[in-house]
Amino acid sequence: MITDRPAAANEQEPAAPRHHQLIVTLFGLYARTPGGGIPVAAIIRLLQDAGVGPAGVRSSISRLKKRGVLDSVTVQGRSGYALAAGLDATFQEGDERIFHPQRAKLGDPWLLATFTVPESQRSVRHKIRSTLVRMGFGAVTPGLWIAPGHLRPAVLSYFDSRGLSEYLEFFTADHAGSTDMRENVARWWDLPALQSQYAEFIRAQQPLLDKWTAGEYSGPDQQAQAFVDHLVLLTEWRRLPYLDPGLPVELLSKDWNALEAHELFSRLHSLLGPLARNHATAILEGVS
């Protein structure tokens, strides 16, 4: 089994990704073709490399099945799981966010959102509000939300597919006021918190890039190590492009570190991805 590398004595070890998050990443990477189920034995074998035991795998799969993320299937006569039907569009939109995040330019339109939910449906109100935050919206006022206009197709598709469009109204608009948009975005988004998360990503992943580019990992375990590092890398990264709305760089501080973090992710993904896929393919073909 591939072991975790210890942190430096004066550094706090970042929280490890939760087991169900690793499993979602695994399916997003290797089970996207039609009928692309993975045998349970293969899931256990692959997650074992990442330090997740069989009990943890089975518990997380059960949770994902209840949430409607995974379906039980038969894979070449073996018990297995596949991504639930209807999630293709969600994962395709995720591919764009994760691997090709867009950044708005000055002068691009803004997307405005407002919603009305009956008092008796507080859970729906909470779901809409939390989803807007997760998709990168900032709060102008408690009842008015804003995001760069390029998010419009993904946002409208998301709410429509979940039956929530009836509660929302969306508008596209240009900024026509005299206020400084740099000051506005600093109020509407929690940019220091986002910058802190990017900084943590860089702190955790830069040493990994240094070690791989220095050739520290070689030999028979190289591909297995690449699989673990790539699985964790993608799991840690994939939430950040959703929290980051892709604001124009002209409206951000000069030390804004999102671009550095994305470059780091891209280099590691290009380096580790092929090796990781070789390892995963060998396990999947060997088990199935």
Quickly list its features.
4-stranded antiparallel sheet, 12% strand, 11 helices, disordered N terminus, 288 residues, alpha+beta
What is the overall shape? globular
Radius of gyration: 21 Å
Structural class call reads alpha+beta
Order of helical and strand elements: HEHHEEHEHEEHEHHHHH
Low-confidence stretches: 1-13
Determine the fraction of residues in helical runs and give it as a percent range: 40-55%
Number of strands: 7
- Distance, first to last CA: 21 Å
**Proportion of residues in extended strands:** 5-15%
Largest sheet descriptor: 4 strands, antiparallel
What count of helical segments does DSSP give? 11
List the strand order in the largest sheet: 5-6-4-7
Overall pLDDT confidence = 90
In brief, what are we looking at here?
The protein is an alpha+beta fold and 288 residues long. The protein has helices at 19-30, 40-49, 54-66, 88-99, 122-134, 152-161, 181-188, 191-213, 222-237, 240-243, 258-287, and strands spanning 38-39, 70-75, 78-83, 110-115, 138-141, 144-148, 168-173.
